What does this fold into?
Amino acid sequence: MSHNYEKLFQPLDLGFTSIKNRVIMGSMHTGLEEEKGGYEKMAVFYGERAKGGVGLIVTGGVSPSISGWVSPFSIKLTSNHEARKHKRITDVVHKNEGKICMQILHSGRYGYHPFCVAPSKIKSPISKFTPRALSTSGVRRTVKSFVKCARLAHKAGYDGVEVMGSEGYLINEFLVTKTNKRTDEYGGSYENRMKFPLEIIKGIRKELGEEFIIIYRLSMLDLVDEGSTWAEIVTLAKEVQKAGANIINTGIGWHEARVPTIATSVPRGAFSWVTQRLMGEVSIPLITTNRINTPEKANSILEKGHADMISMARPFLADAYFMNKAKENISEEINTCIGCNQACLDHIFKQKTASCLVNPRACREIEFDTLKSVNRTTKKIVVVGAGPAGLAFSVEAAKLGHQVTLVDRSSEIGGQFNLAKKVAGKEEFHETLRYFQVMLDKYNVEVLLNTNVNVDLIKSLSPDEVVVSTGVIPRKLSIEGASLPSVISYYDLITKNIPVGKKVVIIGAGGIGFDVAEFLLHEPMDDSEEGINQFLADWGVDTQYKHGGALLEKTEKHAPKCEITLLQRKPGKLGANLGKTTGWIHRAGLKKSGVTMLAGLTYEKITEEGLWINQKGESKLIVCDNIIICAGQLPANKLKEELDNSGISNHIIGGARKAAELDAKAAIEEGTFLAYSI
Ligand code: NAP
Ligand code: SF4
It folds into this structure.
């Protein structure tokens, strides 16, 4: 396949230095920062991304002081001793012909610790800590701490710094009246509120001279009430340029905003219009960002003139070699970030090191290299079941040199991913399947589809090892009426596209119950201009920017396609086990579509009229046309039993081993690790 990403590979000349292409790896906190041996791990992590061809890397946020910590003892740069540790990172990146800037992040009132500070003593809705208001001299000291931090970054060999001015962190808090009620020279008029970031940029420029990259991350869309107005943003951008910044990066949405900005259901490139609004207002390059995950999308955004550069962060967790693959015209080999957040942001919010659902190697490079270096003999391996676990195992084992045959009774690879890809907002799973297919071909995995597997077939293939990844079967209900035609399993509903009536009850509110509701209610993700505008309107984003923060006063209500009641037996919030950073989006999306959510009940029986439930000792009928069963899964492990009975040793992975709470992340991880241990 031939591609043309001409714009993407144009170098960017900054006068004193040049960036080899138009892509920066955006800042991401990975958790390696605080791990034992973290600097060595970060050196390998960033070094690999530099080797993979990205133009410029921006590190995860580094605090200029203790008060700026994201959480207790998180990474900071305040001493020569710390600078020497950073040197390991910059050395490896430079050895791999990359460039790297360190992000200076003062978390302000988002700091999850008792020493957090802010322009005013106003607690954020997403933290339990009330910040201390900085005194005027405290503000000046904070400016100095940024400058000192930049000086140490320079000493550590960084090519520049990114000053984090968005996402609702300290600098952003100074800019808006919502969080800045100060009466001194840093509060009141916009001119005063801008002083803090401008003094930081001027200070860094003065300290380090002209040949040091300063990127300023400017919040172009706060998505909170009383946020910056567009006129203020333009003024700030011009002043930031005057103060000495070389590049302006785009920040979208405060962390407390209630608009999805990076989840998989956000259309690709949904926010590049904001950067485009600023194009022409300043003469330094502008970077755009958020949900850009393919070279095609990135190149087309540049072609449309929406920005001078593209920032992608998570796509470099999913594939360190993204840029090289795009350059070599093998972009179909890119392992695409599906925007799930499951192994990256969700891990960070649970104080775990980030990785990637589609690439478990991410942030564990040293561990994987150690596993890889083990001497192994080539084996003939039969894998039964081409779901995520079986696919991950097959590809990884074949890469390690084994001769792999992958068998599935279905006519296509993918297992449960074939259901997920049909759910509105989960279309990115198509990309993972494309990637796996390309890898199966590349590493010569023999794939036998439409093939029912039994012990005789396996014997006939005479393998050295057998891997059972036969997945799961949907749990059936055993209550009275469960076999009525109105009762449908989620599997049949999605694979056979069975039509349903206007009133639907969903039994089970796990990931699949929520997916089924989205499948029935919502339209597929559409990244055309029209689709993006619809998404923005649905979530209350005002593209006309009538008010500060760019939120609409009222969102338009659509009549839902059907009336859904979603049920679970246990008491408490529905979807409590959904992703930490995405669960709220699923719940909010369904509420907008009028879904009724009920918890703390039992199921009594199903009749022609609907479902009888019992809540607090009272029987009630929920009148409906259809009942969809999403009551979890059971392991499909019959083959395993047959193999055991025939004395054929085997390895069992994925849902076939443990159906409860197994998800794609665990399945891919299990498959990958088994490949290294066989
Ligand atoms: P699940 O998350 O375990 O949810 C099963 C649901 O069925 C629960 O709401 C449970 O709640 C109910 N249930 C269990 N046994 C039942 C029974 N005998 N009768 C009636 N209800 C019963 O399983 P899933 O939804 O099938 O998802 C499978 C896996 O895929 C999970 O690990 C899930 O996290 C993952 N997944 C995640 C996402 C996502 O994060 N967006 C999407 C899809 C799938 P009660 O017992 O309280 O009724
Ligand atoms: Fe992307 Fe999901 Fe991987 Fe995070 S875990 S980098 S969102 S694919």
